[in-house]
Fold this sequence. Notes:
This protein is of the alpha/beta class and 288 residues long. It has helices at 11-19, 41-47, 58-62, 77-86, 104-115, 127-133, 162-170, 182-186, 219-228, 246-256, 268-272, and strands at 8-9, 28-31, 54-55, 95-98, 121-124, 159-160, 175-178, 203-204, 237-240, 263-265. α5 (104-115) packs across α10.
Amino acid sequence: MSGTEDLLVEPDRLAAELDRADRADPPTLLDVRWRLAGPPGREDYLAGHLPGAVFVDLDTELCGRPGAAGRHPLPDPAALQAALRAAGVRAGHPVVVYDGGDGMSAARAWWTLRWAGHRAVRVLHGGFPAWVAAGLPLSTEAPAPTPGDVTVAPGELPVLDAGEAARLAAADTGVLLDVRAAPRYRGETEPIDPVAGHIPGAANLPAPGYVAEGRFPTAEALRERFAAAGVAEGAPVGAYCGSGVTAAQAVLALHLAGRPDAALYVGSWSNWVADPDRPVATGETSGR
């Protein structure tokens, strides 16, 4: 079972790690603040960030170019390696990622580093607002990190393509979770993608069912909530959303619940509807 301490870090614990006598080699801090719509997170970073943190852009550095593969597809491994090295990420050295508080872009950054083979990565629980609320110091100085030596080795976390997602959704055992808001799942509205609805057979578990304002409940509570959505012990589980960001947070929650085998459909709905021949379901039930 995944330990919470290996996945999340509270602000006071992180501050203590940064303030230790051996702070000449502290965790590498990555600021990945991001908005689905609005100005880039870099502006927030320049206004104030955790001391020593380096800004990494979710859209351009942690994901590939948007297109038929989805709005936030897998990054090119060589490009990702270059971006991580430029941010100072070193092989085997601990990394902490944080965002603006909702936990979504930090979870996608966590997932991307883990997928790339870097296991020593945690999410700052509650993100930047939690750090500020704890009265901890901020900086406006943008550091020039020593280039890292991390090697990207893709495939360390399971992923689903469209065909695999469809098979999981239709299987008698296992579940594909659609973590978008219920009206989007039902096909009543679709504010971003050109087609409304969901993958036939997928079960809806909107993100507020397992996370609130970027903070997760206990592992026991998470297991209960996922079980109620059809996640059974030992049976396959995967997650998707609009473009693979919120669903990465669901995968993090599943890790916290003891399911490190949870798979991410990275392309998610934005990839699914890129092919007009793929079926679309609407309505309340999963159709299973």
